[in-house]
Design brief:
single chain, 77% helix, mainly alpha, Cytochrome C Oxidase, Chain A
Length: 412
């Protein structure tokens, strides 16, 4: 009993501990389930499984709303008070968020096997946890004494739109309205995930770079951040309106801005420090993915909407290359730093990060290389297995840190 109490005390000692732990477990679970489903669907191993919710939309929900948010909220609960000199988030608040969202995800998995009503209950419980998080972060932001709240205002707005995306998914489960599902999956990427990950990158990558690179000039143009956010939101609305042929109008400028920031932030110089390089490499995928989106949109326009040349390659360049790689990089840095360890990325974690990059490239090639057309299902599965293997090893390495005391004996 005493040991259990000690474990609980360590898990609740800081916001990132419990949320990152569930995020790590969920990263393993959602990829394990997806790889299993892909193997059966393409008759590679076993046969297709029957789920209460279509696997494509289950996969979308679990990745967008059931995986990334645990890491995002663990990070924001930690950084909001530091960004704006605000009140610390109370233990009962971030633990309530974590437990509600974890129970919601668990019910979602159970419901896929037992019935849609249980999935609905799971999404509703997760939405309750998300509501707690929105309330707490908005309270911290509104009451903070710091004068610069620009980044927090963007991330808070995106978090509210993510809440709306979960609510629409819940309503879709109850009504089967395609419009609600379409908004949920579009909002999840373009109104929630991308604005948050971009804004955190804009805030943290130049800051981290300035701490370790000599003679570093910090470049953090807010006007460019606002234009990039306008492009992102524009992409989301064009996608909702089914105007894919016009996406290049916002995607190519967004790609140009992202590539410019990669250069200005010192992409090549970052390779001298692996803990920094993982963030710069992750951010570079934003420029690459938007170039792919822009090229696909131009091809659609020039062909009269007949040539969908890249399939889902742009989406996976964004989701695996940018989102997942940035989560791995940021979560590793936060975990190392907040456990009292030296801020150095060990060779094993670096290799796992490289594995993520390999999974991204393989998943892209499955859709863009004509020679791989017949092998596409195998490449889908191979990319998933690489990502799963890397994340399992990452979780084995980092998860125990969350329920143990800091090695320097400090609190937190």
């Amino acid at each position: 009993m005493k040991q259990q109490l000690t474990t609980w005390n360590h898990l609740s000692a800081a916001p990132h501990r419990s949320l990152f732990l569930v995020g790590a477990l969920q990263g393993v679970m959602t990829l394990l389930w997806w790889v299993y489903d892909l193997a059966g669907r393409y008759a590679i191993v076993g046969s297709a499984s029957t789920w209460s919710v279509a696997p494509t939309w289950s996969h979308a929900y679990l990745m967008i709303y059931g995986f990334f948010p645990f890491f995002i909220l663990g990070f924001l609960f930690t950084t909001y008070p530091n960004w704006m000199s605000g009140d610390k988030v109370k233990s009962r608040e971030y633990m309530a968020t974590c437990l509600l969202m974890a129970i919601g995800v668990l019910l979602f998995y159970v419901g896929m096997l037992t019935g849609k009503s249980v999935v609905i209950a799971g999404v509703a419980v997760m939405l309750a946890g998300w509501s707690v998080a929105c309330y707490v972060l908005l309270r911290v932001m509104m009451g903070a004494s710091g004068s610069d709240k620009r980044h927090a205002m963007v991330t808070s707005t995106a978090l509210l739109l993510g809440w709306l995306g979960v609510a629409c998914y819940l309503l879709w489960l109850m009504t089967d309205s395609w419009m609600l599902l379409n908004f949920s999956r579009t909002a999840g990427v373009w109104f929630f995930l991308l604005p948050i990950v971009l804004t955190v990158s804009h805030r943290m990558i130049p800051f981290f770079s300035s701490r370790v690179l000599d003679d570093y000039v910090m470049v953090r143009p807010y006007w460019m951040l606002w234009l990039m956010l306008i492009c992102i939101v524009g992409h989301g609305f064009l996608q909702l309106l089914d105007r894919a042929s016009y996406l290049w109008v916002v995607d190519l400028p967004l790609a140009a801005f992202a590539l410019y920031l990669s250069y200005q932030w010192g992409f090549l110089r970052s390779f001298s420090v692996s803990l920094l390089a993982v963030l710069h490499i992750s951010f570079a995928w934003l420029g690459v993915s938007m170039l792919l989106y822009g090229a696909q949109s131009l091809a659609l326009m020039l062909s009269g909407g007949q040539t969908f040349i890249l399939g889902l390659a742009p989406l996976h360049a964004l989701a695996i290359g940018f989102f997942a790689s940035m989560v791995l990089g940021m979560a590793s840095r936060v975990t190392i730093g907040h456990s009292g360890r030296p801020l150095v990325l060990d060779p094993v974690t670096w290799q796992l990060f490289i594995g993520f990059q390999a999974a991204t490239v393989i998943r892209i090639l499955a859709d863009v290389a004509p020679a791989t057309a017949n092998m596409a299902p195998w490449l889908y599965l191979f990319a998933g297995l690489i990502w799963l293997g890397c994340f399992v090893l990452w979780a084995i390495r980092y998860a125990p840190i969350y329920w143990r005391q800091r090695i320097d004996g400090k609190a937190g």
